[in-house]
Amino acid sequence: MPGKTRAFIDHDVEAFLREGLAERLAGSLGI
Q1: Which domain of life is it from (predicted)?
Q2: For residue 2, what is the enclosing H or E element?
Q3: In which element (H, E) is residue 28 found?
């Protein structure tokens, strides 16, 4: 797998996880 593609996927997954965690936190806090 090309390095550029790998970096893009890693960044995409990281952003997805961060958004998911933020939504889960907001939901548990009732925001």
Answers
A1: Bacteria
A2: none
A3: helix 3-29
